Amino acid sequence: MALNPSPISESIKHLDFSKIDFLILNEIEGREISGEKSPNRIIDHLLSNYSNLMIVLTLDTNGVIYRDNVQEYKQEAYQVKVKDTTATGDTFLGYFLSMISQNPDNKFALTVASKAASLAVSRKGSLLLSRFCRGTR
Q: How many domains, in total, are found in the chain?
């Protein structure tokens, strides 16, 4: 089971994450839930309370970190000219979950999801994504 706590709300801050496999969130959501500011401290806090959690913390232009109690992967953001950030987080989330459901290789899933998000921001509007998805069927 995966949770993306977006948009963040007061009720989400108090959820019991013990039944969640993947927590996929950005730095703002991480700060709100953990009370911590740095990415590593956000993840440390969450794992200290929920040791079985697999955390995917997106860092905007600084990429993304995956960490659980055994492994950590960092994926740098692909450098592209940003035209529109519409649906970027949703694109990342959708591709990450799709890849994980097909192949439980977290590092590969981060790479594919990051590429998809980079493609999304390099085009105007989210219309590109619907065209891309239709073309992959």
A: 1
Helix orientation angle between 106-121 and 127-135, rounded to the nearest 10 degrees: 130
Contact of 115 with 78, CB cutoff 8 Å: yes
- Of how many residues is the chain composed? 137
Full pLDDT tens readout for the chain, 137 residues: 999 998 898 988 889 999 999 999 999 999 999 999 999 999 999 999 999 999 999 998 899 999 999 999 999 989 989 888 888 888 999 999 999 999 889 999 999 999 999 988 888 775 555 555 544 44
Give the pair of three-digit tokens for residue 87: 């649906």
Residue 60 sits in a domain of what CATH number?
A: 3.40.1190.20
DSSP H or E run through 75: strand 72-75
Containing domain of residue 56, as a range? 2-135
